[in-house]
Design brief:
Elements lengths: L5 H9 L9 E2 L9 H20 L7 H11 L3 H29 L7 H23 L4 H16 L6 H5 L4 H26 L18 E2 L1 H27 L2 H4 L31 H6 L6 H22 L11 H21 L1
Length: 347
């Protein structure tokens, strides 16, 4: 018998082929099928950078400690700005991933639970991003907290304001925000651990164990995943690095600035308009509608969330083709256009 190669030796020694990771058909090795991986890669970056930022962030002095991270901590500037843009990439990838899943109709039949988990993950991602955005303590964070309190009041949940936003002191506010930021992030990780294994239930029908088109997870699936992950991390690092260049930073709209705005007590605060992060522009404009805050909140939050969660129950037909499910497709596209229009309007 000939001597085995080094990689074969590694594979056999570590029993890599025996690990319980599924293979993937060749057709899934393209960007369309891997926006979920991009979102997970961004989540991994958020966890890594978030744990480091946690060592330096002080709820008792939120804004000053945030600025100290930028100016005094080694690599603190890129650490903080990449944490921000990691959230942006994660949200954008989740948007595209969700739209693609709907267009392919994989929420049908056995994919219904997967769709519901995905919707919950997306909502929690928006929530954890909102909380993180509020932790900086700048003027925009203050506006965000006020909007959050207003939405809870409009929904009749004002009794939860002390739970999420504290007893009115700055220390209690930022301590609770930090705690909820960590809790929601942990829930996202737990739900992902439920979400990921179910991917195997919604791959195309050709995906069977004895199908020769299925590539084993080692090495192709692993290498492809690592490539997508490293590419995602590169983008997360590159974009805020470019935006932070002094010649560029002054021209960056506040919506996409890699750094916090001025503090609430700064003379510059009065010149900063109340702006939400870009991923909440649609909601910002929705709650500004002339129907009253309660109606606006129900129309902008409750109804869309309920509709998204029950889509698998509403559309139980067999065919995933768009033309075979016209009414639910029209509803989804109308909602998507509504989000885009409100976001542009809110900007």
């Amino acid at each position: 018998m000939g001597e085995c190669s080094f990689w074969d030796w590694i594979t056999d020694t570590l029993h890599l082929r025996d690990l319980p990771f599924m293979g993937a058909p060749s057709l899934m090795f393209n960007v369309r099928y891997w926006f979920g991986t991009i979102a997970v890669a961004a989540l991994a970056w958020q966890v890594l950078t978030g744990l480091i930022l946690l060592l330096y962030y002080q709820p008792s002095n939120a804004y000053d400690s945030t600025m100290a991270i930028i100016h005094n901590v080694p690599f603190g500037s890129i650490l903080l700005s990449s944490h921000l843009y990691g959230a942006y990439v994660m949200i954008l990838a989740a948007y595209v991933h969700g739209i693609d899943v709907f267009l392919r109709g994989t929420y049908k039949k056995s994919g219904g639970a997967q769709w519901v988990l995905g919707v919950l993950l997306f909502v929690l991602t928006l929530g954890v991003s909102f909380i993180g955005y509020s932790l900086t303590g700048d003027v925009l964070a203050t506006d965000a907290v006020d909007v959050g309190k207003g939405v809870l009041t409009a929904l009749g949940l004002q009794s939860l304001i002390p739970v999420f936003f504290g007893n009115g002191t700055q220390l209690d506010l930022f301590t609770r925000l930090l705690g909820w930021h960590i809790i929601v992030a942990a829930v996202i990780i737990l739900l992902f651990m439920l979400h990921y294994p179910r991917v195997g239930y919604r791959v195309p029908a050709i995906s069977r164990n004895n199908d020769l088109t299925i590539k084993p997870w080692w090495p192709r699936n692993l290498i492809f995943t690592l490539a997508v992950t490293l590419l995602t991390w590169g983008v997360i690092l590159l974009i805020p690095s470019i935006l932070a260049v002094p010649q560029v930073l002054g021209k960056v709209p506040i919506l996409f600035s890699p750094y916090p705005g001025p503090s609430l007590t700064s003379p510059q605060a009065s010149s900063i308009p109340a702006y939400p992060p870009w991923f909440f522009l649609f909601l910002y404009k929705m709650v500004d509608m002339p129907f009253g805050l309660t109606v606006n909140a129900v129309m902008g939050i409750v109804i869309p969330l309920v509709v998204l969660l029950i889509i698998p129950a509403l559309d139980r037909g067999g065919s995933p083709h768009l033309l075979d499910r016209p009414w639910v497709t029209a509803l989804f596209i109308t909602g998507l256009i509504w989000v885009i229009e409100l976001s542009v309007w809110g900007a």
